[in-house]
Every structure is written in structure tokens, then in C-alpha cells.
Write a sequence for this structure.
């Protein structure tokens, strides 16, 4: 694995031609995706500024151009008319001011004010490498360029550590005020969320205080990517607690999940109902963001996430690129649970039906399985004789659904566990599985549980076997992203 110096990680991209040879090399990788957003070069991580404006879906992602390394971050811009076919627009937010001199970090979008406005964390480093975080504002111009405000909206809060980031802009119709949520860390190294407010979204921001979440005062050492969404009339607190273990998540230490409850902006209290739920039970999902859709369908909450994890190492790191985003998912409530289903538009990407007697599956395909509730096993990416593979199974006696990637030839991030399990109280009725060249997303029982994982099958891992109580239909998927070199 390559070792990077600080100078290499934080090198400024001055000319797109500097990275064209890297792009030309990585597009030949067998692990480049067919219908998932992926980096034009280098590293992709958090989705940012996801929103709908003027007939287009806008999405940005954290981007380090030089390789599979977290260094100087930019916001790279992609657009879509339908949430399935995406166009590379190039770099939008650049780290080119004093307050973001070492990176334009994650943030969110505000739609409905004549333009799309982007709120992000400016990552500033002093000469002694002391970090200061600034919350910054950008107006997206009609030509797609970033028009930065003359100064940050506000700076770092001295009562917390240097870890303050990921502004989420919210408008509350009850108080008629705007709020910004910031992920933060207390000085005792516990995670929390800070709240700022203003009567209007572009100036006059004041610190209100820390969001009180009873029962979760000591839950991880940092909260990233906080958001409060209202879905089917229910308040949802989404966030990413770091450096704690959760039952059923193996040795994973960084999580993406939610609390259901009630938000009171007057008292700055989110009162949870029940426990913390993990959004995705798979191996590789983090930093989920809901779209700002004030001028689209306000009742359709759409979420997308980074298909990766902080501090994880992936096989394509050696090819100088890493990361992709999940497929967009619709969120809705089912009882006291948030469920995720793939957007309906994805069916438009279906091509030819895979013959029932086929011995292999396309590298990009959509599978539907109807299950009777008894034992079943699906082995994907098997070798000669049905050996190895990515195993999806259901044990009827224990109502246990299991995903196991330990039998793939190319193993990675083993320390966080290679098996994920979930008890299905109502048994197994249905699976929807999306496979791309280096990813798999499994939706169980119409979104009751989701398992998202990166996979890197070798050339000989092409077979599949289905046994037990299930019937499967498969479609080849058409291409929906282009590897255009646009910087």
C-alpha cells in the first residue's frame, strides 16, 4: 500500500491535465461501476449538497484527486434528470480561501431561494497544523460555478474540540427559523450535535446550544453527518457515531443510523422513542444524506450514502482510486422502523432477462427473489465446482438472515468482521439485489433491512448457485454513468 506524505496529500490541483493520465489508467479497471456514481480519479467519500433545483438533481461528493487517500478535499459535482443517469459536471467547491485552505469538507444544500445554496465545512490549518473549522456558504451559479460568500457564516466553537463539521441546513415551519446542525465532539471526547439558528439562511447565525438527546449522552466519541428529517409525520435524527461497537455489527467501530422521536427546537431536545437503529446492516455504508427536495416531491424522502467506511482499505487503493455511492433509496416508516427501498426508476435500467438455465450472472444485474420462508442459500461469484463466493442465506428455524463474504478470494477489512446477520421476525418473503462490478446491495422484505457491501471478484469468480425455498429472476443492467474526464 502506498505511503503518502502530507505534502502529497494536500497538493493543490492546478491543472486538470495533471491527473488525466491517472484517469486514463483507472477507467480500465475491472472494478469500475456501470450504474453507480464513482470518482473521476482518486478518492470519493461523503455525498454532499444533495438536492433538486430548476429541473435537475444536484449531487456532490468529497473528492481527493490524487489517489485513494484522504487529503485536500474538493466538492465534485454530478447532475441527473431522473436519479439514475448521472453526468459529470466537474469540480464545484474548491479549497481556495484562507478558511478552507486544507479542504472543503462535507455539508448540505438549501433549495427554494432562486438558486441552490451549499453549506460546507471549511477545514483550515494554521502553520503549526492546528485545525479550525468554519461553516461556509456557496451559491451555485447558473453556469454551475461556486460563488462563495465573502466570509464564513461562523467559526469554530471554543468550548468543543477541533472536530466540528458537516453542517445540515434545516427550516422549521413551526418556529419559522433556520437551523444548522453540526457534528461535534465534547472536550471529554464524547460525541454530540451543535445547533445554530438564524431568521434568514444567509447571515445572522447565532449559537443556540447543544442538542439534548436523553439517553445518548455518551454514545461514541464523535457524531458526524447529523440531520433531522420528518418522514411520514415522524421526526428522525440521522447521524454517524464513531468508535463504539454495536451488537450485530461485528467489530465495526463507525456506524450510520437513526433515532425515531420528537424534536423540540424551543428546548433543543430530541426525545428518542426506542433504541438506535443501524441504517444499513452490510459492510460498507456511511455518511448518508437526504435530498433537499422542496420543489420536487416533499413527501418522497430520498437518501444516498457513501459505499465505504472511514479508515478502511480497499483493493482498488492500489489502482489509485477508491469509493462509490449507493443507489438512491426512498425512506418511509413501517411501524417504529425506517425502511429503505430502491427508487422505482431503477427498473428503467433493466435490459435483457438472464436465462433461467444460465450458469453465470452479468457483472451488472438486478435480481428479484420470491421466497417461501423456508431455508434458502444463494452463492454468488463462485469458482469452478461452486466453491467460495458471496453467500446469502436464511435459516428458517432461527429466522436468521446471513450475509457472508469471507469465501471470496479477494478479502479486505477482515478485522471488522466478514459476516453480518439479522433476525427476520416475519420470516423471509422477498429479496431485491443489485450487483455492479464491485458492489452488492441487498434489500430484504421490501426494505425492512438493507445490506450494502463492496466486493472485488476475481476473473474466475463468475458462477452462482441458488438452493432452497426461493425463485429468482435476473436482468442485465444498462450503463447509467459515464467515465468522462470532466474537471
Amino acid at each position: 500500500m502506498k505511503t503518502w506524505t502530507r505534502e502529497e496529500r494536500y497538493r493543490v490541483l492546478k491543472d486538470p491535465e495533471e491527473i488525466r493520465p491517472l484517469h486514463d489508467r483507472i477507467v480500465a479497471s475491472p472494478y469500475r461501476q456501470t450504474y453507480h456514481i464513482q470518482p473521476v480519479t482518486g478518492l470519493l467519500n461523503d455525498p454532499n449538497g444533495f438536492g433538486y433545483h430548476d429541473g435537475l438533481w444536484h449531487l456532490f461528493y468529497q473528492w481527493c484527486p490524487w489517489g485513494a487517500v484522504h487529503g485536500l478535499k474538493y466538492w465534485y459535482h454530478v447532475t441527473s434528470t431522473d436519479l439514475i443517469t448521472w453526468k459529470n459536471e466537474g469540480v464545484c467547491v474548491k479549497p481556495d480561501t484562507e478558511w478552507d485552505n486544507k479542504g472543503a469538507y462535507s455539508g448540505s444544500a438549501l433549495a427554494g431561494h432562486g438558486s441552490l445554496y451549499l453549506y460546507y465545512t471549511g477545514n483550515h490549518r494554521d502553520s503549526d497544523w492546528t485545525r479550525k473549522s468554519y461553516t461556509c456558504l456557496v451559491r451555485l451559479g447558473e453556469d454551475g460555478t461556486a460563488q462563495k460568500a465573502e466570509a464564513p457564516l461562523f467559526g469554530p466553537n471554543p468550548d468543543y474540540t477541533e472536530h466540528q463539521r458537516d453542517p445540515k441546513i434545516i427550516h422549521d415551519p413551526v418556529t419559522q427559523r433556520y437551523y444548522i446542525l453540526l457534528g461535534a465532539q465534547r472536550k471529554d471526547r464524547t460525541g454530540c450535535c451543535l445547533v445554530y439558528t438564524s431568521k434568514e439562511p444567509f447571515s445572522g447565525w447565532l449559537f443556540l446550544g447543544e442538542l439534548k438527546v436523553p439517553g445518548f449522552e455518551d454514545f461514541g466519541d464523535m457524531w458526524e453527518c447529523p440531520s433531522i428529517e420528518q418522514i411520514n409525520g415522524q421526526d428522525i435524527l440521522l447521524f454517524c457515531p464513531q468508535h463504539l461497537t454495536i451488537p450485530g455489527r461485528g467489530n465495526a467501530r463507525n456506524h450510520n443510523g437513526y433515532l425515531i422521536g420528537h424534536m423540540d427546537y424551543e428546548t433543543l431536545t430530541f426525545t428518542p422513542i426506542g433504541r438506535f437503529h443501524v441504517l444499513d446492516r452490510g459492510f460498507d455504508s456511511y455518511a448518508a444524506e437526504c435530498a433537499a427536495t422542496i420543489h420536487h416531491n416533499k413527501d418522497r424522502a430520498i437518501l444516498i450514502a457513501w459505499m465505504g467506511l472511514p479508515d478502511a482499505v480497499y483493493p482498488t487503493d492500489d489502482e489509485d482510486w477508491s469509493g462509490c455511492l449507493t443507489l438512491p433509496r426512498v425512506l418511509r416508516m413501517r411501524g417504529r422502523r425506517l425502511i429503505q427501498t430502491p427508487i422505482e426508476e431503477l427498473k428503467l435500467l433493466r435490459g435483457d432477462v438472464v436465462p433461467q438455465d444460465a450458469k453465470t450472472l452479468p457483472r451488472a444485474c438486478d435480481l428479484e427473489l420470491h421466497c417461501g420462508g423456508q431455508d434458502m442459500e444463494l452463492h454468488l461469484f463462485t469458482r469452478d465446482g461452486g466453491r467460495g463466493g458471496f453467500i446469502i442465506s436464511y435459516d428458517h428455524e432461527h429466522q436468521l438472515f446471513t450475509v457472508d463474504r469471507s469465501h471470496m478470494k479477494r478479502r479486505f477489512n477482515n478485522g471488522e468482521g466478514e459476516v453480518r446477520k439479522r433476525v427476520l421476525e416475519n420470516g423471509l418473503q422477498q429479496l431485491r439485489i443489485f450487483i455492479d462490478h464491485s458492489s452488492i446491495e441487498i434489500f430484504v422484505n421490501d426494505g425492512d433491512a438493507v445490506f450494502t457491501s463492496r466486493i472485488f471478484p476475481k476473473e474466475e469468480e463468475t458462477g452462482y448457485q441458488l438452493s432452497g425455498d426461493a425463485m429468482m429472476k435476473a436482468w442485465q443492467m444498462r450503463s447509467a454513468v459515464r467515465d468522462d474526464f470532466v474537471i
